[in-house]
Description:
The complex is a heterodimer.
Chain A: E1 4-13, E2 16-26, E3 31-35, H1 42-50, E4 57-62, E5 65-66, E6 77-80, H2 92-103, H3 107-120, H4 136-148, E7 154-158, H5 166-183, E8 186-191, H6 194-200, E9 203-208, E10 211-216, H7 218-223, H8 228-233, E11 240-248, E12 254-257, E13 260-263, E14 271-280, E15 285-287, E16 294-302, E17 306-312, E18 317-323, E19 333-338, E20 344-347, H9 357-360
Parallel strand pairs in A: 3-8, 3-9, 6-7, 7-8
Antiparallel strand pairs in A: 1-2, 1-4, 4-5, 9-10, 11-14, 12-13, 14-20, 15-19, 16-17, 16-19, 17-18
Helix pairs in contact in A: 2-3, 2-4
Chain B: H1 15-43, H2 47-51, H3 64-70, E1 71-75, H4 78-82, H5 90-97, E2 100-105, H6 108-139, H7 145-154, H8 164-174, H9 180-205, H10 209-216, H11 221-232, H12 234-250, H13 253-258, H14 266-273, H15 281-301, H16 303-310, H17 312-315
Antiparallel strand pairs in B: 1-2
Helix pairs in contact in B: 1-15, 3-15, 6-9, 6-12, 6-14, 9-12, 10-11, 12-16, 14-15
Amino acid sequence: MAEIRIENLRKEFGAFSAVEDSSFVVRDGEFLALLGPSGCGKTTTLRMIAGLELPTSGKIFLGGEDVTFNRARERDIAFVFQLFALYPHMNVRKNIAFPLLAQGVAKAEIRARVEETAKLLQIDHILDRSVSGLAGGDRQRVALGRAIVRRPKCFLMDEPLGTLDAEFRDLMVRELRELHNRIRATTVYVTHDQLEAMAMADKIAVMNHGIIEQFGTPQEIYNRPATMYVADFIGSPPMNFLRFTAGLQKGARSVVVDGVDISVPEIHLDLAESEFALGVRPEDISFSDVSPLRGAVFGSEYHGTNQIVAVEMGKGLVKARVPADQNFRIGETVGLELNYDRLSLFDCTSGRAVPSSRYAEHHHG
Amino acid sequence: MSSVNTAHSVVEPSRTSKRIAATIVIAYAVITMIPLVWIVLTSFKSPPDSISYPPKIVFQPTLEGYCNLFTTRTRQTPEYITSLGAPTSTCDEITRSRNMVIAGPSNYWPRFQNSLVIAFGSTFLAVSLGTLAAYGFSRFKVPLAEDLLFFILSTRMMPPIAVAIPIYLMYRQLGLSDTALGMILLYTAVNVSLAVWLLKGFIDEIPREYEEAAMIDGYTRMQAFFKVVLPQATTGIAATAIFCLIFAWNEYAFAVLLTSGAAQTAPPFIPTIIGEGGQDWPAVAAGTTIFVVPILVFTILLRKQLLRGITFGAVRK
C-alpha cells in the first residue's frame, strides 16, 4: 500500500479543461471519495492516477515514486470500473486470476490466492461460474476480487455502485467499508452520491468544474463547507442561504439580515460592504414564537422521524428540519431560531466562506 | 356476448399472426430452396433424364454425373470394351455402358482445391487486416480517420470488374496472372474494405473498459487486444468471414479474366464441363452441388456466431 500525492494536476481536452490545478494527498491506507456532479473532472482525475489518461501538466506520486508518465500496467494499481468490465469469455476464477497471470505468478500460488480472495469476498462458491449469469452484487464482488487479488499499491474505483439498485447499494456500501477496514488499502473512490461518500470515506474531495472546492473529512465538509457550492451540494435538503448586504467587521458577533440582528460565530476579518450569505443547515433551525426572524409556512414534507418545513422568507424558501410531531398550517407566520454557533458566512462574490471562530481551528487553505 | 376477451397478451403475438408469419417464412424458404434442390436432383439424373420434357421428378438415380465430373473419357468400340475384362469401379461400369472408357481424372478437383486455397486464404487475410485496421480506427485518434474510412469504403462504390483491364495489365507485368497468390491478393483487396467497416461496428460496441482493465491488470495493449478484445469480437469476425468467403468463393468475372490454368478456380471451370461431348447437365449439376458444400458447412459451423452477430446490439447490456 502506498500514499498517493497529486501536485498541480491539470487536464485539458482541446479547449475544455477537465481538471484544473488539483493538489491533494491520500495517506497510506486512507479512503478518499472524489465527489461531484457529472462532468466535474472526478473521473478524469481518477483515470490520470490510473494511467489511462496523461495529464496536461502536474505530477502524480505513488508511494513517493513519480509515476506521472508511467504506463497503467507499470503503476501497480487496481481499478474497479463502473460497469465492472468483467471479461465475459472467462469464468469467475479466470477473471480474478487474470492480473496474476500477467505477473507470471506460479500456478499453485494463483490458485491459492484466488481462493483466499474469493473467501474474503464470500464468492468462493461461484468461482467456476460464468460471469455473464451473475447478479449485480456478485459481479461487483468479482470485480473487487480481481482488484484485491494482486495486492496493489492502491485501489481506484469509478462509481462502482452506480448501476446497482438502491437497496443493494446500501449493502455494498457497508461491505466496501468493512473490506477497507480489513485490508486498509489506499483507495480513491469516485462518486456523485454524497451519502456513499459520507458513509465510506475518511476524506472527501468535493469537485466542481475541474476544481477541488474542498478537501477534508466528511464532518468538516458537512459542518464547515468552504464554499457555497459545497454547502449547496452536500446535505439533503442542502444548506439554506440568507442573503444580505453589509460590511463585516473583525470581531463582530452578529450580522443584520432584513433588519433582524442575528448572532454568528466571531468574524475574523474586516470586509467592505458587499453581498453575503448566512448559511444554515435545516437541522440548525427551530421554530420560536418570540424570534424576530419571521416567515410564512409554505409546505412540509413528512419524513417519519422528522419533517422538512419550507418557510417563505420574502427572498426565497428556507427549509427547516424539525420534529415530526409539530403541526403547521400553510400560510401560518412562524418565527425562526437559528443555532448561532453552527452558522456559516459566505462572501457571495467569491463564493468562499468568511473566516470566523467556527472555521478558525479547522481552516484548510 | 358483448364481453371483452382480455386473456391475450398485448406483447405476445397472437396465434393467428404467428401462423401467418410461419407460413410466409416457410413459403419463402421453399421458393429459395427450389433451385438448389433442382441442382442436387439433376446431379443424380442420367443425361437423357436431365433434358427430358416434361422434367422428371421421379427418376432412376445414377452417379453418372459425378463420374463424368471427375473423369475424362474416350469413346471406344464395344469389342475393345468387352476385351477389357471386369470393370474396376461403379464409374468404370457406367462409363462402359455408354461405350466409353475412363481416360484419366478431370481438372475439377485441382480447380476445386484452387478455390479452397484462394477463398480461405483471401478471407483469412482480409479479416486479419480488417480486424487490426478496425481496431485502430475504433480506438485511436487516426489523423483524417473519417476521410480514410470513406476512402476505404469508396473502393466498393464501383463494380470491381470496372478495374479489370488495369488489373489484368498490372498482373501480367508483375507475373501474378494465373497464380493463387495474385487471386488471394485481389480478393483480399476487394474484401478488406467490407471487413474494416463491418468489424469497426462490432469493435465499437465492445466497451474500452475491457482493454483498460486488462492494461491496468498488467498487460500491454497488444496482449489486451488478443486476450480481451478478440474473444469478444468473435461474432463479428465470424459474420465478416462468411461475407468475405462467399464473395471470394463465388467470384467469377476476375477468375475468368485472370486465371486460365494453374490457378483457375471452380466457378470459371464448371461451365466448361458442358462442352465436353454433348450437354452434360448432370456433370455440371454435380460440380455445382459439390461447390456449394464448403460454404454450407462453414455457415452451419458458424451459425451460432452469425445469429448472435445479427442480434448483437440487442443482447448486450
